[in-house]
Amino acid sequence: MELYLRDNDPTRTVMLEASGEELYKTDTPRGGATSVVRFQRQASVGLVSVQIGKVESTTHGGSNLVLCENGMEIVLRPPLDSEWAFVGPDGRPYKWQLMIRYPVLMLNDNSLTPIARYRRAKLGIVSRSRRAFLEILPAGVNIVDLVVVTFVSYAKQYLLPEASSSFES
To answer: Tens digit of pLDDT for each residue in 106-117?
Structure first.
């Protein structure tokens, strides 16, 4: 499953399927918490949006991530080096790790089973252009909401500060 980002900022975008159907939306008001919303079709009322997560920055550089469907709060510390570990609502350990410039979510156990990976957009100068996308691998199909919410939090902490510091220099 691939979720394409309409805009290249994971904290302010709509995530689409290859068919163009909108599945998720992220929004970050200036200086505020990032909300993650899932769109779902219901026969009686049509398209409904459900908030599935909220990412709040903390004063010590980490994030509080609230999974809205089950009320679970995950406190995420700032990433150390290139990996970011947490325990999901299913009790399993996960980690986002930067591998060759691309973040990958994997199980944080002996198997290191890949769950998802993010591919940045390409401009198309040397190769074909493409939109940025979050690829959900078969092991992550049952936890797509968790993948999306933790990816947005990881991007807010790790990917976006990198981009803003490169623009300043």
So the answer is: 998 899 899 999
